[in-house]
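User: I'm new to structure prediction. If I give you an amino acid sequence, what do you actually give back? Let's try with this one:
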Amino acid sequence: MPSTPPPFYISTAIPFVNARPHLGFALELCIADVLARHARARGHGVCFLTGSDDHSLKNVLAAERASVPTATFVREHSEEFRQLSAALGVSYDAFVSTSRHPDHPACVAELWRRCRARGDLYQQSYSGLYCVGCERFCEPGETRCTEHSAPLEHVSELNWFFRLSNYTERLRRRIQDGELRITPASAREETLALVREPLPDLCVSRSATRARGWGVPVPDDAEQVIWVWFDALAYYLTGLGFGGADPSRFERFWGPGARRVHVIGKGITRFHALIWPAILSSAGIAGPTDLLVHGYLTQAGAKISKSGVALDPQPLIAELGPDALRYYLLRHVRTTRDGDFSRERLVSAYNAELANDLGNLANRVFGLVARSGGVIPRRGDADPLALELQQLTAALPALIDCALERFLVDEALDAIFAAIAACNRYIDRTAPWASLKRGQTAQADAVLRTALEALGVVSEEIEPFLPATAARLSAALGPYEQSSAGFYRLREQQALPPSLQLFPRIESAVAASGG
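Assistant: Good question. You get back a string of structure tokens that encode the predicted 3D arrangement of the chain. For your 515 residues, that looks like this:
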């Protein structure tokens, strides 16, 4: 008997909610959603987590500028991130807002107590430069932050420190041995470069006064709140019930044999590849198994961010639909590299690939079936061209599995659209419309049956990427069964709609109006 696929846990990072969500975080949501949906389709038990990082000083300062209570400000912006997930069709299993989730303070406190019991937490007076954007003290000699342009602040206070220096060698071995797989290789090498020398200990608390009392209190020290990154990283366990009344989800999805994947932007690799595994090791908990580090989304070469070049994804979703935006972000932004966005390129990809390739394929096949009787034809004798298409589409799931195992979402979509192009070529070469015109119905039906079953494969395999489109296509095709060869057999004589408009073209005048 085939073995049961292991549990699959996947998460996005959680963004500070000091402003509305931008298109860069939409990219991260879409990548993680593809991996979660694909794992479900392949039989894995899946837990997909996202949420919002509420306890940042950035949030407090933004609320003060807006003259709004911090809790109110954070709640409103957290909901905007939840709404973005819904608008994109993201299939998360849990959304953790760190200031409102009932189990989060207990989860953070339990991690803290375990690290302290291990002897890895101690108090020390500290003075240094602090980047509010990153929420971190800078390294000695660091005079500016490469991620944020705002001036650094000089801070002096008594804080708690974590003995990160104790874990340098352990972290290096874990990455080198592949116990923690970091993708792409460039991110892995950059991380290994950080552990060639002993890591400095880490300041993991802030004065409650400087934090305006906002945050999770340090256990048994009311003068301090826990550093926002220690707090935020714990969210990965909060959503699984760690520290709460029911730890069963944690035991399943963070237990032995589970795949534990974090999807993150490249600017926070250090926190996830070094600090988070060290905290977990100190607490006696296994670390993540995989880090997928995606690049930045830019516009005209400038990084898209909440505080810099902001680009709201919601108007694009409202105008073009969620699948159009998902498609562009997932295929035209290479998963592990930076990618530049423009509305002009989005519209061009929509028309050339979604409307012309996939949309036109579906509509002309359904239209030809309507001319031939309006029902799924019986299977005819397979000619060499049909066998070639059947073999190509039967191989498609394995190609997608291989691409996503390497976390290359763009390559998986490349394979799907190569199959779509092959199906279009098959119809062009067999010309079923000419057979119908000559009265050769059986010949046309054999072609259309092959094309419909190829569309059936596409509808299944494209679901993680374009879920709304897949649902429409699958509903139009109706039920199917899978043959031993992996090809999809549709029910004969089932009525089909006379047409299927998946992606109506955007006229050039409309496209130009958006710039």
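You can read the tokens as a compact description of the fold. Here is one thing that stands out. Residues 509-515 have pLDDT under 50 and may be disordered.
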